[in-house]
Specification:
The complex is a heterodimer of chains A (427) and B (542). Chain A has 427 residues and is of the alpha/beta class. The chains are: A alpha/beta (427), B mainly alpha (542).
Chain lengths: 427, 542
Amino acid sequence: MPAFRNPSCLHLRLGADGGVSRRSFLQLSGAALAGSGLLGPISLHADELKKQGRSCILVWLGGGPSQMETWDPKPGTSNGGETKAIETAVSGVQIAQYWPKIAQGLKNWAVIRSMTNREGSHERATYQLHTGRKPTGALKFPNIGSVVAEQLGDRQAELPNFVSVGETIGSGFLGVHSQPFVVQRPGALPENIAGTVSPEQLKRRLAQLTDQDAGFAAAGAKQLVDEQRGLYAQGARMMLSPKLKAFQLDDEPAKTRDEYGRSGFGQGLLVARRLVEAGVPFVEVHRGGWDNHVSVFKSVEKLAAEVDQGLAALSNDLVARGLLQRNLVVCMGEFGRTPKVNPRAGRDHWPKTFSVLLAGAGIRGGRVIGKTTSDGMDVDADPVSVEDLFQTLCRAIGLDPSTELTSPSGRPLKIVDGGQIVTGLFS
Amino acid sequence: MPHSSSPALLKPAMNSRRRNWPWSRWTAVASIAGLVWLGLGLPGGWRPSVAIVVAAGPKLPDMSTPQAKLKALEYFRQQGPWKTIKHTGALTSKDVDKSLEYEKKLPDDRYAPLSDDASFMRRASFDLTGRPPAAPDLLAFVADASKDKRAKLIDRLLETDEFALRWAHFWRTVMFYNTPVAANRLDYGAFEDWLADMFKRHAGWDQITAAILAAEGKKKEVGPDNFILACENQPTLLASETARVFMGVSIQCAECHHHPFDRWKREQFHELAAFFAPGKYYMPDLQHPEEKTEMSARFLLGENPPPNLKADARRVAVAAYLVYNPNNYWFARAYVNRIWSELLGDGFYAVDSLGPDGDVSHKLVVNRMAYVFRNQQFDARWPFRLIMNTKAYQRQIRAPKSSDELFTAVRPSRLRPDQVAKALERIVGGDKLAKDVERIFAVDPSVPLADVEGAIQQSLFLMNNPALQAAIKNGPLTQRLSKISSPERLVDDLYLDVLARGPTAAERRRSLEYLKTVPNRAEAVSDLVWVLVNSTEFISRR
């Protein structure tokens, strides 16, 4: 972030080849500018972004969904297997047969078919696709959700700045303030949130607690105490907040709940929409089961029924509420699957080619970025690395990827190290 | 996540390793001593001059039943290094302190002072039994004038059933925290019961490890079978988990690619995986899934098992190579480092993801401990006794600011979930919250304690959980305290019962004041209990 911040302007940073050319535009509409996509990376002031209410919903398909059974089918080839392709609302673009609703609404969605990476272990790739970094040594890089929470969230907010429906990668060196708040049962109020004493009594207790902890901090545990104080402050704010009802679905019409699908995943997406609507900048929703070493066609067909419905309902709902311009939706997993079908009708881990689906926040719907060879073994055009993807996510959310985060040892680390924005998604 | 730092550090470390390590001298002796059939003690390629011993022809012991397998392993144990070499074996806690000081040569004032008796007892009780000391025991310990009372306490706690139960639970979480297998396909209870029983019977860590690796891996009701079940009986997962848990090294990256700074190559990973395969094992080609290379089993230091071994007997061989090859110092060191890391708050290296040896801090100290641990026949209690009697363990808390300050104080850290649950038992009078606490406070026990963070859910639980709040309002502790008529005694007991120490002057003053200002005595007492239960100290190791 520039040292000479002026909250009334936007700072534009022109592409890497343009050197340090930073200009200020007074009173420019950030959204219009971001949407115009004519310029390089755009970094808005965090304050400005907070006002805009940018947000992101990450739909995580854990296990590594097969690109050939999702957004990059290869019908009629030996590698393509049983999967057929279907036409979509975008002429000339086909996706796998299991996704009729996404096909119908593809004008909202863009696809990257040329993702490429080298990490083929679940754990390490999951880390990488959540943080933008390869796992290295002791330094734990934060989940991108934590970075967004830290950069765009309000520490004094009543709701957590990062909510995850299902366990996920943590906030790493960013610490407890941007730790994901994990919801296990979407639709229900988080457990232990209801107070059992009057607000006055709680206040009295908390005052005593502050004094009690001060002594322990002085005895050598300052870091632990600071963490706990932060957690208790967050907890207390949440307990007393009327916004808590964003976690509950009681006041959602039955019709809407049906549209998202009555699965945990579908209802989780609906909760995600309610949360971003209530001002939470980052929500992650998990759906595992994509590690299809065996019977990939049957497995994807079953999973897709649920995810197709949920994703389509989410994008329609966001459009209807005017939220899609400012909310990014990303749907991905940790890697793709082997183009060649294995003897068990499954596909194994394959980071070399995979696909990502995106919508909103200035992403041009209907776009298809890159392509793979006809056998699916290689990227044929416009390879997109994990760093490129993260540059792109930052751009859509409005973060400056060169913003430096500080590691515990004081080392400055850019939000994204290397990579280039996939400009074709915005123009 | 073990990707290493400097290649420059690596070379000298690797070159000097064998020279520094006293076990390598022993290799020839061992092979003659009867480990012939596995060629054990003959790291492939290292000592071709003694390969003649293998040529003598392996005679395989019977390994048709689990019992027979364990018997075979027991046979190797009988030939263990502690039987065949003259070693000085002795290593005292004072020696450890001296070597730690020698390592960094810091002035005395950089070391934290020793903690008082009450803090020591709380720390030792939590560590060994998972539970804070009861108030009467604490008072008796503090009043005890004998000089060796700390050593005696350690000895006593090491022999409790709770020690066996706690550390069985700990190792269960170490082994299964990240398993891809659903919890209902495993039997954690059976595993913990079995392991606790092994600890109670003073089984060596070598025997425990051997039993786990040589297990049938078929029925979850059979305790030791669960490790293999948790690895889905998959050769690659068994290979990486065996190396991770029992050697403290991370080789899983080598499944897919070479690592520039790592000792283990991709072929070695798959040779190890081949040990665990029921039949032939092929290394996959990531680019071309149909082109595979057949790999024959070979342990990490190059040991080849006889070619005619059956699949389950090959796992016995893994166990033997892992545990009884005197050149495999990783095995003993991984255990010592785990325990040290739990007890001091920092390890000599990341407990399960060591890359090159250059990443080991205070290498001479930990290597020496590992060496003597082996000569102590892998007595699982020995490292506890050694470490807990050091000044290093008995110092006051302070978070180290740099690596120079490692082990000059004990790192304050979050209690493990089982410890939080047991601390709460005092408040609620029973273990009904244990399950919730284990879930909400769950943390991967292989993450360095320095990196373990809390979560809002934990503070919400302590603030609001209905069962806990009911206990704080009117549970056994609150009731007992409310009946004490002297406010001073009430406050003393409150701190003793909840925080395992008396109040400081400031705390006493503040609490007495609070009792005065809140007219309803029962409500005031419950407030004070709530405050201490929610204090950072309550959930901390100090």
